[in-house]
Amino acid sequence: MADIEAFEKNELAKYSTTLKLIPYKFFPAIHGFRTNAGHLAISYIHWSDEHLDGPFQFYEVFEPADKSLRAEHYRELFDNWVTRAGK
User: What is the pLDDT of residues 51-70, one digit of tens each?
Assistant: First the structure.
């Protein structure tokens, strides 16, 4: 988290961009990023034997204008995990 906070302070601030970081007691299987404009980037934990795999797994990206059934289901899935993890 310290690295991300430093990146926000030193790089993202140049573009008037802020992040809201939410720490969890566990690593959520479904995780990602959502912007105020409605963009969603969602990914999943990948395992390699008994360890979490490297941080370079794919993300599904949905633009705000994408109102397809698939995009809406992914938004609901992301919201469901974020809501549950926050409890």
Answer: 878 767 889 999 999 999 99
The two structure tokens encoding residue 16: 């008037």
Read off the tokens for 28: 């959520």
pLDDT at residue 25 is higher than 80: no
**In this structure, how many other beta carbons lie within 10 angstroms of the beta carbon of residue 2?**
6
- The residue among 41, 33, 45 whose CA lies nearest residue 60 is 41
Which tokens hold the place of 33?
Answer: 């990023």
**Is 40 within 8 Å of 78 (Cβ atoms)?**
yes
- Looking at residue 25, the DSSP 8-state letter turns out to be S
Sorted by where each begins, the domain ranges of the chain are 24-85
